[in-house]
Amino acid sequence: MTSSTDFKNLTQGKMIYEGKAKRLYETDDPGRTIIEYKDSFTAFNGEKKAEMSGKGRLNNLISSFIFEFLAKNGVTMHFLGRLDDLRQAAVRVKIFPLEVVLRNITTGSLCKRLGVEEGMKLPRPLIEFYYKDDALGDPIVTEDHALLFGWADEDEISLIKNVTLRVNQLLKDLLAPLGVVLVDFKLEFGKDASGRLLLADEISPDTCRFWDSSTGDKLDKDRFRKDLGNVLGAYEEIWRRLSGGNK
Ligand code: TMP
Ligand code: ASP
Q: What is the dihedral of CA 38, 76, 92, 102, to 10 degrees?
């Protein structure tokens, strides 16, 4: 078993899984994986697709930066470190079949589903669960569905909600001075071989909504979903603001 600092010496093995935005590889350590970010954009459950050169690098840089920031603030996660422009090393986890969405401001599917006004600041964060199943189009579910169908137990749901709220607070505090409003985001969680619950997947403009706090401009994947143009420019802008002086 490698120690937590020598993830850089992992040897990449065969591909285990290819998703819409990332590929997962096994390594010479059964407890660790290598994640490679792709240049692909997809939306609406894969119906809309595009390739944009440089996207994988930006999401890897942004996601790694955010994970490092969260790790420094005590969040436990699968992420071990960034390997190069496109790849990260991570603890191998079994992902809960739940997408956890936290919303600070109303927009997106919430407004479509409930007919509520766009852009309302919620009095407190709203947490929603979606069942991860492409064939079903990731339907929204309640905590009770997750418990009754065995997707997570009560302690896990409680921990997942607490970590999600903590990530929200930390990210809002990170982004506010950079002129970015954290509108909403999606997290995924997994369990490692010893049963530890870890934040997983990625945190990037693919999985968050970022609005410029002075202009209201969208700086995230909504530019691709809604054909707003300058998609990679928005990702570059998020990276420019995050990396600030240390780029
Ligand atoms: P929604 O308003 O479309 O439900 O999206 C809520 C948040 O979740 C938004 O920040 C984008 C993110 N998201 C994903 O990361 N993956 C997805 O498949 C979807 C639908 C949303
Ligand atoms: N992640 C989903 C897809 O790739 C949907 C989305 O992000 O809008 O199709």
A: -50
Q: Distance, CA 245 to ligand 1 centroid (Å)? A: 30
Q: Is the CB of 225 under 6 A from ligand 2?
A: yes
Whether the CB of 58 sits within 6 Å of ligand 1: no
| Each residue's pLDDT tens digit, 203-234 | 999 999 999 999 999 999 999 999 999 999 99
Distance from Cα 83 to the centre of ligand 2, integer Å: 26
Q: What are phi and psi of 204, to 5 degrees?
A: -155, 180
Q: What is the pLDDT of residues 92-138, one digit of tens each?
A: 999 999 999 999 999 999 999 999 999 999 999 999 999 999 999 99
C-alpha 107 – ligand 2 centre gap (Å)? 15
Contacts of 19 (CB under 8 A, 6+ apart): none
**Strands 40-43 and 48-51, how do they pair?**
antiparallel
Q: Which residues pair with 40 in a beta bridge?
A: 51
Q: Read off the DSSP letter of residue 242.
A: H
Q: How high is the pLDDT of residue 167?
A: 99
pTM over 0.90: yes
